[in-house]
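User: My collaborator sent over this chain with a note saying "see what the structure looks like." That's all I know about it. Can you take a look?
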Amino acid sequence: STRELKRWAIIGAGPVGLVLGLAVARVMARAHMCPEEAHVVVYEIRLEQGGDGQFNRPGPRRDQVVTLQDDVVDLFHSAGLGHLFEGERVWARSRNCAIADLEDRLLAFAQEDDDARRFLRLQRTKRRRNIQEQRDWILGLDADVLVGTDGAASPSRQAFPETFRSVDAPDQEFDRTRLGDKNVDCVPTDYALGIGLTDDVEPLQEQSANVFLTLSQCRYLLNSEQGKRGYLNIRITKEEYDQIFDATGRRGCTFGSPITLFQDALHALDVDPTANHNRIHRLTAPLPWLDRTIGDGLKLFNLTTDHVRDIVGIQLTPAYVHHYFHILPPCSGTNRPRILCLAGDSAISHHFWPGRGLNTGLKAASAIARMWCGDESDPWWGGCSNRLMLFQTFMVALRKREMQGRSQSMMWRRYQLAECCPWLNHMLQGEQAVQAQILADARDRDGQHMDELFTSAKTWADLLQPRHGWPHARLGDAALRNKLTRRARPSPLAMRTMVGSACVAPTPPSAGQQQLSGWPTFLQGGREVDPSNFVWM
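Assistant: Without extra context I'll predict from the sequence alone. Here is the result:
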């Protein structure tokens, strides 16, 4: 019986793990359970306990800004958690939220809320030396239900390959199914740069303009709060990514080790270059094309180098598992099996461009809470084995909707930059005469490309601005066009690349409508998979 599964262990205190722990603790309190018998322990290696006994997150933080759907936030209102997801209203039915702020609010609430203080415990843990140690540690936890929410590289998932490893995983280093492994018309990996933005420089452009310009092409994506904090993301070709990798001395430019193009960056950021964490280093060889590409993206959104903090490289490999729970042997002294579930990036890792990663993880967290903590009135009510099968069925449906229905839209070979914009790689290593001709063609057709990009942005504006709940003042055509014609605007080559990167809907528009161009939303639509009304068919 699920009523007997009172001891929980959640591995990972990111947003998904903390939200799940808080939701389960709330259910335990409302069911008047005894804290000595029912409890949730959330384990995290990035926690540090201060002298006052309060936990915090020291060291470098994730600076991403994510888009949270209102329908997903609504799943947690009944648990009294909805207010923790506050953010800037950028879209009609969603908000942008800085991950670090969300983590801080959830962590503080876990230590302040009365129900959480009774039923939820935070526990700092250490990083295990190898997967066998992780497996032994998990098997030794005194818990009935365990949930791995420990990220895309999830040691919890890797510790149980007999269930979670995909049979079509490409190699020993990668244990999941990649979208590109199941569809020969898709690539397994896409590439991007994240230009980290500071939060102490005033924004210079309306968020509505940022939305329309982002949607009108697939080279630049600004995901920010108030037009500044967050990242300006730039899709690049594999060849561009490899050049950056080589120019860093083959050290890469990850979130833990970003690069900078600016001489005074180390001093301005007050970074100790000898520190082992958050080391920011310069390129070992100049890359003029990279300076231009970043500069064009900044100009598109009316930003300047004053807004730039650092630069990270991102390999985007959407991947997933096929099984979402594993039966563990009983604890000593009992004959009751235990369950290990996966949620968040440990189960399904997205391409971030469509903005669905955290939403998918939170839906999985809601499904797990409903699966184990619901009552007879909940559609998830039933015996333990029935609920496990329902959870598996839900997660498969969620994966198909979000991976094949959304992330895959960015992985089609025909929409990769190297296919849409072949001149980009010629500008890296082609002959000078060829490069000169590419630049001349871009200059000659600059006015045409600007008109095409404006038409695409205007079409998105005409579609979105009349919608109920649109949170911005109306932006007129003249003001929108001015964003592309002002003196500091992207170069002709950048204009050509943005127009070339845009995906065009294959079906003709309805009467009186323009054909959408830019994001491949025609591949992303469809009914949401929602744990609040999911029916096991």
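A starting point for your reply to your collaborator: DSSP finds 20 helices and 22 strands in the chain.
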